[in-house]
Design goal:
- InterPro entries: DUF2891.
- This is DUF2891 domain-containing protein.
- Pfam families: DUF2891.
- By secondary structure, this protein is mainly α.
- It has one domain (about 10-345): Alpha/alpha barrel (Glycosyltransferase), CATH 1.50.10.
- The protein is built from 15 helices and no strands.
- It has helices at about 10-25, 50, 60-80, 85-95, 95-105, 120-135, 140-165, 180-195, 200-210, 230-245, 250-260, 285-300, 305-325, 330-335, 340-345.
- Helix 5 runs parallel beside helix 7.
């Protein structure tokens, strides 16, 4: 299992791109094993995953299939050595007919909470990636533009669904898994700002402030739970640096009360993973990777050469290294999803708006 320092040369980065692209290519159309979150209303609802959600049926579950396609779109866009292979997989999935079936499946009274909010936020990230790619690509632009248009109806449904749900959510969900509120809002806010959906962005910003603006002295010593792949505390801070980006001093003041410089918890050090073949315990590898990119985002908003910035930078690097080391292609338990987290980290997606 290769490791990398994020300052390595372009050849090393390209090899990482290929490695993680291979993980997604091997699973986006692999139907089994499969864990479906499917509500049955009658015998007529019993179908194979490829029939229920024909675009996003691989990678063990729907959300992993979605962000596996995001990984392929991102690498096809930024690494020309991978464009052809990744585009072939995207071409198979992102047809108008298959995405219309996805829309029909999700737009059902029994599925109002389907993949909310984690999977829905990743779908918006996929739409954002396709949108940026279609605007800049000269070669194969018609095909990429068509994929972008094919996903738009599903994207509109998801924006409407999240916009309706958020004001009714009485309290944020502070888990370290799929139900977490802050992580999904961060991904969704990046999307909303990119597509200039000011109404959706305003809803996210207002609800984020309602949920988190008064938080102080976050108890990081309560983290992580044994099956976390997200930090509730860092995801909250990474969201708030986005929400407060127009007034960076406001964020610095908020963050200094949220995590004072003398209050850095040893629990944020990379955890050990006892069994990488266990589908839940391997979550901790994802925790390391997501912590690393969240810390990078937070660092971007902190004063240069401050003690706090330097401490968090070293913590980010240690978590990144531990997470990358833990990815093992021979174990499908982590291989079907960890590549996405690695690519989100090493391409600095949560920080870079255009690359």
């Amino acid at each position: 299992m290769a490791t990398v320092d994020k300052t390595d040369n372009n050849t090393s980065m390209s090899s990482l791109h290929r490695r993680f692209a291979s993980l997604a290519l091997s699973c986006v159309h692999r139907e089994y094993p499969n864990k479906i979150a499917h509500v049955l209303t009658s015998d007529a609802d019993i179908h194979a995953p490829r029939d229920l959600t024909p675009a996003f049926y691989g990678c063990f579950d729907w959300h992993s299939a979605v962000h596996g396609h995001w990984l392929l779109a991102r690498l096809a866009r930024i690494d020309k050595n991978l464009t052809n292979e990744c585009c072939q997989a995207l071409k198979q999935s992102l047809t108008k007919e298959k995405l219309e079936s996805e829309l029909k499946y999700i737009n059902n009274a029994q599925r109002q909470a389907f993949e909310r909010p984690y999977g829905l936020a990743w779908l918006l990230q996929l739409a954002m990636e396709l949108d940026e790619w279609s605007q800049e690509e000269k070669d194969n632009s018609n095909e990429i533009h068509q994929w972008r248009e094919n996903i738009r109806p599903l994207e509109i449904l998801i924006v409407d669904r999240l916009s309706s749900w958020l004001p009714k959510l009485s309290f944020p969900v502070r888990s370290g898994e799929h139900s977490q509120t802050a992580f999904a809002l961060g991904l969704s806010l990046d999307y909303a700002r990119h597509v200039k959906n000011l109404k959706f962005a305003q809803i996210i910003e207002e609800q984020s402030l309602r949920f988190f603006s008064s938080d102080k002295l976050y108890p990081f010593n309560y983290e992580p739970s044994g099956e976390d792949f997200l930090s509730a505390g860092l995801a909250e801070a990474d969201l708030m640096r986005r929400v407060m980006q127009k007034n960076n001093q406001e964020f610095i003041h908020w963050f200094n009360e949220f995590l004072p410089v003398n209050n850095l918890s040893s629990s944020l050090e990379p955890p050990s993973i006892a069994d990488p073949t266990d589908p839940k315990l391997i979550h901790l590898a994802g925790l390391c990777l997501s912590r690393a990119w969240m810390l990078e985002g937070i660092i971007e908003a902190l004063p240069f050469n401050s003690e706090q910035r330097n401490q968090l930078d070293q913590l980010s690097k240690r978590n990144a290294q531990a997470g990358l080391i833990a990815i093992n292609e021979s174990h499908y338990e982590g291989g079907h999803w960890l590549g996405t987290f690695a690519i989100y980290l090493i391409t600095r997606r949560g920080i870079n708006s255009k690359i």
